[in-house]
Amino acid sequence: MTRSDIVEELAARFAQLTHRDAESAVKTILDAMSDALVRGNRIEIRGFGSFSVSRRPPRIGRNPRSGERVQVPEKRVPHFKPGKALRESVDEQGLGNAEAPAP
C-alpha cells in the first residue's frame, strides 16, 4: 500500500472529505510522525505499534568489491515494533493470503 492508496482509502471512507483534504490529512500525520522521530521522540499508536529511533554503533565494515576494511560511522535509524493486536491479526490471516513478492 502506498501513500496515495492511503489517501484514496481515506477519501472513500469519509465522503465529507475531498481528495485534497484527505491528502492534506495524510501528509500532516506523516510529517508530524517524521518530525517526532527526528527529535528522538517515541510514537505509540495503541493496537498498531510503536515507532522509535535506534542507535547503531560505529563498526568496521568491508567493501564487498575490494575486500578492504571500511569504518562505518554511527547511525540513528527508525525502528517499528508492531503491537500485540496487529501481530495477532497478521498471524491469523496466515501465509495463504500473502501477496507474492514483487520480482
Automatic annotation (TrEMBL):
Keywords: DNA recombination, DNA-binding, Transcription, Transcription regulation, Translation regulation. Residues 65-77 have a biased composition (Basic and acidic residues). SUPFAM superfamilies: IHF-like DNA-binding proteins. InterPro entries: Hist_DNA-bd, IHF-like_DNA-bd_dom_sf, IHF_beta. It comes from the Bacteria. Heterodimer of an alpha and a beta chain. NCBIfam families: hip (TIGR00988), PRK00199.1 (NF001222). This is Integration host factor subunit beta. It comes from Variovorax dokdonensis.
